[in-house]
Amino acid sequence: MNIILLSLLGVIGFVLFLKYRPKSYESILIDKEEAINISTRHIKKLTNIDVSDWQPYCMYWYDRETVNRLHNLNMLNRLRTTLYKWGIIESWRIRFVSQNKSISIGINADKEIVFMHVDVRSQEMGTNEINIQSPLDVIKALTVNNSGIWSKVKSTGEGERKEDFSNIRTYWYILEEEELRMKISIQVQENVIIGILSDTEILTSNMGEIVKKEFGESALNLSGFIGSFIATIIGILLLIFTDNAVYLKTPIIITLFTIVGVLLTCKEDISMGIINSFDSRLSVKSVYLIGIISAIMGSIAYGCVTFITSLTGINLATVLELPLFENVGMQVLTGVLISFISLGLFSSIFHYMDKNNLIRISPELSDRSSYLSGFKLKQSLSISLQSSVTEEVIFRLLGISTLLWLFNNNLLAVTITSVLWSLLHQGSGYNPRFIRWIQLVLFGFILGFTYLYYGFLAALITHFVHNFIVLSIPLIYYKIQMKAGKVENTHNIQY
What we know:
Blueprint: H1 3-19, H2 32-47, E1 55-61, H3 64-72, H4 80-86, E2 91-98, E3 101-107, E4 113-119, H5 135-142, E5 154-163, E6 166-177, E7 180-189, E8 192-202, H6 207-241, H7 249-263, H8 266-277, H9 284-320, H10 328-355, E9 360-361, H11 367-372, H12 377-407, H13 410-423, E10 430-431, H14 433-453, H15 456-484
Antiparallel strand pairs: 1-2, 2-3, 3-4, 4-8, 5-6, 6-7, 7-8, 9-10
């Protein structure tokens, strides 16, 4: 395709993508520093522990499974306000860590506590001013305002057990709003609240059908993995039993990009691990050490897969005389332009289908929430590098080359790899889901024929730029708004 025409289509595609970006949640997420201060006060009130000088680790939190299920049941829009109040979306998880102790807490958009786990010895908690003798006393201690979630819960029972020479009393509550039910358990030890746990249920007769669809999707994901694994084995056997030259330099460079992608967010991954599963018997330094070792081992594992598959794919492609890295500048430009065209094409199609009620797409995080959550461009870079390099090497470089060697049919090779590639991806945010898979198959066709007609580097750049823009545009757009002084309290598309 003429580069001028490709450039024109690329510009049009990028403009269409910006115009028809996916819908987003209304952003009522509180600032991270405010969430830390509120959490500090809650913990002091409920446990009599001052965590103001402890190290806080924070993450944006939402219940992805519940949100996707509500979306597939067509209940998400109607129950959105309830999700905010219950802390299912737009909430924070914060873990305060000190030597041999930690406290994890969840704060919703209304500044209420919705989750807590105290990992502190009872003798270090001191005496609490709150007198908890009944289920009502617990609710009074947790209530922030008269319209919050704790003013609406109903007690369903209580019980007691002995542990480490102290009594732990558990109070059970239930919270219901239309088709949603939340079961809550609160643990109290020596007049101190040490745990708040909850489980959300969707009250509908269609849940069985939703669970079956989720299971089917998992099975399809597995079949895609198995198919790619078989293709990898076949490719390696071809490398072993065919008398071809071995090219090492390029596979090593490709592998290094994968390793960089894995290690780029090592610090953030460790912080996430501390928030989700910190063991106070370990020091933070030991957790970081374990995290670094795990990241290195993970990068080695990813690197080995990438090296073997790229080595095999490059050698097969060379035998078949497929374009790889020739004319680098033109391939990079072509890849960028094709990614713009793809973004504009699919965003326009999804916008049209959504507008005409042909598909429902689960909303994304707003630009504001993406920014406040602490998501960084280097995380976008890491995700984009890992996904584009590994997937393009396995499905395009190795998969298409292997199938071409076996069947000598471009269309068949691109079709098989596109279908297998689409099955590896989740379609739970789309209803009906098969439309998402059709879109992925079409994108797989674009990537496959980009490889065959322009070169592997062009396909790799197309995939990388596509993913990077999708992940990064909320941050970039919000920062531009901030500099222009156009930032409002919320940034969303109403629906």
